[in-house]
Amino acid sequence: MTRLIVGMLVVIACGGASGDVPAAAEQAPTPPPPAPSQGIDASRRTAIVTAAERVAPAVVSVNVERRQRQGGGDPWGFFAPRGGERVVQGLGSGFVVSADGLVITNQHVVEGAEQVVVTTRDGTDYPARVLGEDPLTDIAVLRIDRPGPPAAPIGSSRDLVIGEWVVAIGNPFGYLLGNSEPTVTAGVVSGVGRNLLPSARQSGIYVGMIQTDAAINPGNSGGPLVNSLGEVVGVNSSILSNSGGSDGLGFAIPIERALRVADELTRHGTVRRAWVGLDVVGSEGMRDWKEHGGLAVTSVADGSPAGRGGLRAGDVLIEARGHRLRTFLDWEAVKLDIGPGDTVAVQVARAGRPRTVQLVVEPLPTSRAEKVDVLGGLRLITVTPAVRQERGVLSESGALIYDLPAETRRQTGLRPGDVIRQISGLPIERAEDVARAFDAARGRGWIRLHFEREGRVNFADFYIR
Question: pTM for the full model?
């Protein structure tokens, strides 16, 4: 910081023929006042300044190259769509969380990335590998393979107070700027435990979020939300905006969830989900809690943790893990933050009488089910009653897409969770039927695949070369 020190120049004039000293000079010289900048500097070093200085060295820009489908062109590739592709650039933010170069960012920042480079605030570029992505929580983990920036101090979102200061750090509109230093914006915690209603454009579930009025704009995604102590309490993820810019409605993923997901992705390459085995009233019952004070159970799967705990349809969930349950989104927030083997205390009301049940949750049925790999890298599982309950599938049979490579996803338009029902007129009852149907269709030209997605039957046309 450059300081401007203002001093005082005292001029003593000598006059009079007799050489007498003027009366003013007989007084002691006035000492210069303290430099104004000293007091100003002290007042400028607020908690926000200190917090930003503490975390900014760990914040990076995340630069991405991905391929994007476009219309026209000739069929190509293994699964060949009607159209070509072009390389597009993407930009987001992230922050280092460990000394060995782990970086947390948003999944939507690196989705479909073929190349990822992170840039530190001094302009140094580091090639990065995507260790894992979790679209459900919108968290991804990168690794820098050589020594890089320091790790950010980590705090807690559990004791956040509405109205306390927070700082958002990242690179909004970074492609328009000529330098790489992260941008700092300040605001307050506007709310905690916020649930965003699902929309057709979002693949993640944004529940239990931190709301802030700190300005968050495109490019901020994946950057840290920091408390006044200079500790990361959240991962900036989304905004509600009519203009596409900041309207003071920004949301961050709690840091505890982000770290848990990052640990799962680092250790296992995927996130192991917990299965309770019950369904609750959905968005159509958003107003019911005002009248009934809880969340109605609509079904319980046989042999599930909920079934073994004695729960049944008609019960009302009042509380879980100490969190009041008002809508189905509150229940989704609880499930999002538990893993297989966890014990969940659930308060249930039946016929007006409350009781507490301890549920030991299990891995998801889809994660335990036998996987069938077919051409193009599709991983399929047979739809069973437990799979139907877990995924909310309407079809009583079929092959659920458990996973598929990003390239196959781009070329076919299929995605995990789709249930294949029919291929070129051949019904699909089990996962093994898909391979036989593809073999039968080989060489016939374009094929039509019918599948269920979000309760609706769709179709896709492509060519198997």
Answer: 0.76
